[in-house]
Amino acid sequence: MDLDTARQELEEFIPHVKNISDSSIKKMAGRDLMRFKEFKKQGIAVRFGRFTQKENKQIQKNVEEFLSLTGIDSAEKLLFTSRYPEDKDTIHRLKMEHHFCEKISEGIPRPWRLIYYRARKMFDPNNYKGRYTKEEKEKLKKYQALHGNDWKKISELMSRSNLSVAMKFSEIKSAINYGPWTKEETQKLMNAVKEVMRRRLKTENPSSRSSLEQSNTDPWIDREKLHQQLPWTEIETKVGSRYWRQCKQKWNSILMSKLTKGQQLYGGTYGLQAKINLIKRLYETRAEDASEVNWDELSNAIGDVPRTYVQAKFYRLKVSSVPLWKRKTFSEIIDYLYEKKLPELEENL
């Protein structure tokens, strides 16, 4: 299959395919296209975003079955073969003979590359080593000065995962402030988020340019719904004194405050109706895991609020209404709210 045809056929399943490199398209045409078509026949859409508990279990099952099939004695050897140079040739041969790519992705409607990365994260023993010591932090700074952002190299030197060393360096690379946010820091955060969103909105909707340039006040934030996914590492760089996770948490608190200021979304009759709508919408999704829920769409069930607001309200609802909720699955919690709590709320309304 030629490159243009492959890209065209993949576009049906991956909307952002135009942004994918030619080499990745070639790999996806071989590893994913037939799988995607088969899932389509079954009425199953290709998924992105956070992996569900069910998908994680399927990955674990696929890995364990492949180990049993080939006799490779650990998931680490299978997924981190470079750590075992003496076994490398044998493992690569077994992967080829027993169709590793197909086996590892069985039953999971996602691009193979994402499944592979998820499996590596799940089975990497270096992912779960706890807090960094002072000595490790100093080593991390030294290795980054020597090797730049070659996190694969640094992870091998430190026996930590790629993601772990990258995120830890993000925390320690500048003088991080853990105290209350100052007015200056908060304003830097607001400006950084607004700058990022201006660029995104101009790209997605060039006609919005004039209205954006005229909108320098807080209502612009409400109007543009800035609770969508943002490039937090870029925003971290613009703020300077906080790392990305702090920026994200602070932004969520700012946004929730702005969007709920002066609104009585959970007071009186409006509050009852909002809870009723939320339970009904959650029940209609038939989701088995919280990560399967599109919280952005659900926000419309109770008003123009960010997803974090909706998630917080759902959390309070289940804690206050569902007995022994910690022992229940997500779907069991939703069923209980629908069957037991919903009639009570409707009667009160």
Quick summary:
The chain is an all-alpha fold and 349 residues long. The chain has helices spanning 3-10, 22-31, 33-41, 53-70, 75-79, 88-97, 100-104, 112-123, 134-147, 151-158, 162-172, 183-204, 209-214, 219-224, 232-239, 244-260, 268-285, 295-298, 307-321, 330-348. The chain has 4 domains: 3-123, no CATH class; 134-173, Arc Repressor Mutant, subunit A (Orthogonal Bundle), CATH 1.10.10; 183-206 and 218-260, no CATH class; 268-348, no CATH class.
Q: What's the total count of β strands?
A: 0
- The shape is globular
What value does the average pLDDT take? 80
Q: How many domains is the backbone divided into?
A: 4
How would a textbook summarize the main sheet? none
Order of helices and strands: HHHHHHHHHHHHHHHHHHHH
> Pairing-aware structural class of the strands and helices?
mainly alpha
Beta-strand content: under 5%
Q: Helical amount among residues, as a percent range?
A: 55-70%
Give the CA-CA distance, first to last residue: 60 Å
Helical segment tally?
20
Which runs of at least 5 residues are low in confidence (pLDDT < 50)? 208-227, 261-265
What is the CA-atom radius of gyration, in angstroms?
Answer: 24 Å
GO molecular function, one term: chromatin binding
Protein name: TTF1 factor
Pfam family, one: Myb_DNA-bind_6
InterPro entries: Homeodomain-like_sf (IPR009057), Myb_dom (IPR017930), SANT/Myb (IPR001005), TTF1-like (IPR053078)
